[in-house]
Amino acid sequence: MSKNVVAIIPARYGSTRFPGKPLAPLLDRSMIEWVYRRTARCKLLDRVLVATDDRRIKRAVEEFGGEAVMTASDHPTGTDRLAEVVGELDADFIINVQGDEPLVRPEMLENLLAPLFNDENVHMTTLATDMQGKDLEDPHRVKVVTDIRGYALYFSRAPIPFPWNSEGANSLLHLGFYGFRRDFLLRFPLLPRTPLEQRESLEQLRVLEHGYCMGVVYTQHRTVGVDRPSDLDVVTGILREEEKV
After folding, report:
1. Residue 186 has what pLDDT?
2. Which of 85, 140, 103, 111 lies closest to 236, judged by CA?
């Protein structure tokens, strides 16, 4: 079986909370360069691309030797942006790495790919890790519960499952990294939005509501995404320690 794997990094310039975020400086590089280079360390990848709607980002990526492609500016989600790019690519499996995740690790991407390589029932994969602190009560921290095979049952912003007793499994904290089979990624944007997806405002619920299988892979690594300028200091400190710069 062919295993042509491409990682695509969606990167928009426009952001309500942090305009120009992909070009924000982190130590001696832009954030998008950190994401690109750390993603490219995964040895299972055949290609890494940045998908952007802004020529400033495309130019910045090409200046450090990366590859970037332009996409339409009116995509409702990052998955739609991926699908536009994949339609023109020779790829069997696709990984989605957000452009604001400079702490991505290659082993996380290897974990994402394992179920796609080994389980033909899985259309899509994602990562999850242990809860910390107030994660369970925070609606911005998405929770996921799985069946005994590791397939996603439900994602929610609410605390799940209800703690009726002290036995049984807890939910995991969902991390926004995704792996796809090519045919499913191209099909996904064509699926109608679903009631639970709209209620929770969680795009991944569309997959489950339409009856597709999503594998959830545990990782011990918890990244720090950059949502606001204030997050840069935290990420800079971690990068300085991990990269020894």
Report:
1. 95
2. 103
Rounded Cα distance, 127 and 83, in Å: 20
Q: What's the sign of the alpha-carbon dihedral 201, 206, 208, 209?
A: positive
Q: Model confidence at 245, in pLDDT bands (50, 70, 90)?
A: low
Cα 89 → chain centroid:
19
**What is the DSSP pairing of strand 29-30 with strand 47-52?**
unpaired
Distance between start and end Cα atoms, the chain = 41
DSSP-derived secondary structure for 38-93: HHTT-TT-SEEEEEES-HHHHHHHHHTT--EEE--S--SSHHHHHHHHHTTS--SE
Q: How far apart are CA 61 and CA 122, in angstroms?
A: 32
Residues β-bridged to residue 8: 49, 96
> What SS3 class is residue 136?
helix
At 143, the amino acid letter reads: K
Mean pLDDT of the chain: 93
CA 43 distance to own-chain centroid: 18
Prediction pTM value: 0.94
Residues 6 or more apart whose Cβ sits within 8 Å of residue 50? 8, 9, 10, 11, 32, 36, 57, 58, 61, 66, 67, 68, 69, 99
Amino acid symbol at 216: V
The Cα 35–Cα 9 span in angstroms is 8
Q: Which run of H or E residues covers position 172?
A: strand 172-181
